[in-house]
Specification:
- This protein is mainly α and about 110 residues long.
- Helices cover about 45% and strands about 0% of the residues.
- It has 4 helices and no strands.
- Helix 1 packs across helix 3.
Length: about 110
């Protein structure tokens, strides 16, 4: 929901998190936003100008490492549902357009 300038700032401040987003985007084949991919944001963030990053967060703690590992484990599995916007994909949506995550018992 952020504008491009805010997204570029976020990419510049959280490079490791952005790289993880890019990995998810590449593996799953879906863009971060309908009109903008993480790959495009990375390219925009490398250009001169725009917002300065200010404080860059290293994301180098054990919590981030654990999250990144969990994301990679999840990426090794098939997606739990397909996106409605993909006319070629078989529909696996449950009630009210939400996929069955198994947590609500419906």
């Amino acid at each position: 929901m952020a504008n491009r300038s805010d997204l570029i700032l976020a990419v510049r401040r959280r490079p490791r998190l952005t790289a993880l987003y890019a990995e998810v985007e590449q593996v799953r084949g879906h863009s971060f936003r309908q009109d903008l991919s993480i790959a495009e944001l990375l390219q925009l963030a490398q250009r001169q100008g725009g917002p300065a990053p200010g404080i860059v967060l290293a994301d180098d703690g054990p919590e981030f490492d654990a999250m990144a590992a969990a994301v990679r484990v999840a990426l090794a599995e098939p997606p739990r549902r397909t996106l409605e916007a993909d006319p070629e994909a078989p529909q696996q949506l449950g009630l009210s357009g939400f996929g069955d995550c198994g947590s609500c018992g419906l």
